[in-house]
Amino acid sequence: MVGLLLFLLAGKGHPKPAATSRDRDILLAIRKDWGSPPQLKSWDLTASLNYCTWNGVKCSGGGEGTVTELSLSGLSLTVPVPASVCVLKNLSSLDLSNNHLTGAFPAATLCACKQLRFLDLSHNQFSGPLPRDIDGLSSVMEHLNLSVNSFSGEVPPSVARFPTLKSLLLDTNHFTGAYPAAEISKLAQLDILTLGDNLFAQAPVPTEFAKLTKLTSLWMDAMDLTGEIPEALASLTELMLLSMHSNNLTGSIPAWVWQHRKLEYVDLSANSLSGELPRNVTAVSLIELDVSANQLTGEIPAGFGNLKDLEFMSLSENQFTGPIPASIGLLPQLRYIWIHGNRLSGELPLELGKHSPLVSLVVADNNLSGPLPETLCANGELNVIDVSNNSFSGELPANLGNCIKLDSLLISNSRFSGPIPTSLPIGLQQFRAENNRLSGPLPADMGKLSNLTHLSLRGNRITGPIP
Ligand SMILES: *[C@@H]1O[C@H](CO)[C@@H](O)[C@H](O)[C@H]1NC(C)=O
Ligand SMILES: *[C@@H]1O[C@H](CO)[C@@H](O)[C@H](O)[C@H]1NC(C)=O
Ligand SMILES: *[C@@H]1O[C@H](CO)[C@@H](O)[C@H](O)[C@H]1NC(C)=O
Ligand SMILES: *[C@@H]1O[C@H](CO)[C@@H](O)[C@H](O)[C@H]1NC(C)=O
Ligand SMILES: *[C@@H]1O[C@H](CO)[C@@H](O)[C@H](O)[C@H]1NC(C)=O
Ligand SMILES: *[C@@H]1O[C@H](CO)[C@@H](O)[C@H](O)[C@H]1NC(C)=O
Ligand SMILES: *[C@@H]1O[C@H](CO)[C@@H](O)[C@H](O)[C@H]1NC(C)=O
């Protein structure tokens, strides 16, 4: 009777849908069922009457609407999500990522959320197998993120039985056996697919994935892939990220990797890829390229000069020969050049460091010759110079002191000559220059290098006292 009266009064004074106060009461019930954790302290009428302002609560249409999202990431929650959460009839997004949640996948609870489109359980400590009937989750699921947990067992085919799925993130778990490649390849709307860092049985890259033409991210690191990267994946023209590092891939890198214009991040490092790279490279959006630790041969393509956005280039630990193309010295964004452990020869590009904010130059273990370019310290961003084990010669650039951020200067085993520049970078921590032909006294400024922890100059012709 009192309830009816209140309802009528409320209905008169503040015309609102009945759902409104229900959602408030449901939130209070959820908080209680969850054991009233301090993280949900703001879920309290004394804090705010408007529950849509409570921590992590989002409503549709703003104000006191219906609750559509709970974003409870990074709250150190440890207690499992209570069943009452799905009493929120319009809940479409539930983010519980970056907490300390444990136990099995909370299927019984979450399958009751009939409007759920977005579920993020990533970065928790969930364990055990996924339920065979995980497709009992809402049929309108679009984003399922289970990455970085301890889920194990085989991935059930039902995980791909959501016709509108756009993201499927299963990486960094303990999944074993085969994963349901055929079912996944039917997810025509799929945008993001991550499977890497699992204990899957050794298997080739599924050619069926060629059907996933809307993919922008394909992440298959460290999951025991064998065989070649399929030519058929050339159909993935929307790809921005391709990562398959630390597998056992063989054969050459397919041409499409060097052509797809939307690719920004390519990491194929630590495989057994072989063959030469094409001269012409038209994947002009590349920002990071890592093909290190393979068995690639031939020359570094001059076409890398097209990669105007390239910031990170690692070609190290391969068998590349020939010179470093001059065009690489002109790239405007290049910060990291890691090409150590190859058989490169010739000189460093003339204006290296002048056109881009170079941070790290690691070219050790090659047969590079000539002097270090005067331009290396042009913008003062350099942090590491490692040119050890080459055939460099000439004097060290007099302006090395302009590299104010330099902490490692490694020039051992070359034929550098002349004096050590009078001003060395003040932050220097490592300076190794064994087995060169450096001569003359040490600079007086050397005593100011308070951070120097590794200094090695033997095998030179240095004279005079230590300052
Ligand atoms: C809430 O869900 C119901 C059906 O479950 C629907 O009729 C209603 O329009 C939804 N409200 C909002 C604001 O999404
Ligand atoms: C999980 O995946 C979803 C969907 O792709 C994404 O929006 C979300 O940011 C991811 N979560 C984390 C913690 O990265
Ligand atoms: C695959 O790669 C792993 C790690 O790189 C290595 O330990 C293993 O021997 C390789 N297996 C084969 C068959 O090449
Ligand atoms: C490089 O590829 C582009 C686009 O495919 C083409 O227009 C150009 O002629 C090619 N250049 C060379 C030198 O092959
Ligand atoms: C290294 O290059 C120099 C010429 O700069 C050449 O004389 C020498 O034979 C090369 N060494 C090796 C091991 O290729
Ligand atoms: C240079 O070569 C020596 C001997 O081959 C090796 O021990 C050392 O690790 C190499 N240094 C670098 C920086 O690659
Ligand atoms: C010396 O090292 C410390 C600790 O690594 C660092 O904070 C400081 O900036 C360094 N000094 C210079 C001059 O780089």
TrEMBL record:
It holds the Pfam family LRR_14. The keyword Methyltransferase does not apply. PANTHER family: LEUCINE-RICH REPEAT-CONTAINING N-TERMINAL PLANT-TYPE DOMAIN-CONTAINING PROTEIN (PTHR48004:SF59), OS01G0149700 PROTEIN (PTHR48004). GO terms for molecular function: kinase activity. It is found in: Cell membrane. The keyword Methyltransferase does not apply. It comes from the Eukaryota. Its main location: membrane. It comes from Dichanthelium oligosanthes. InterPro entries: Leu-rich_rpt, Leu-rich_rpt_typical-subtyp, LRR_dom_sf, LRR_N_plant-typ, LRR_R13L4/SHOC2-like, StomDev_PlantInt_Reg. Residues 22-60 form the Leucine-rich repeat-containing N-terminal plant-type domain. GO terms for cellular component: plasma membrane. Residues 90-319 form the Disease resistance R13L4/SHOC-2-like LRR domain. SMART domains: LRR_TYP. This is Leucine-rich repeat receptor-like protein kinase PXL1. Keywords: Cell membrane, Glycoprotein, Kinase, Leucine-rich repeat, Membrane, Receptor, Repeat, Signal, Transferase, Transmembrane, Transmembrane helix.
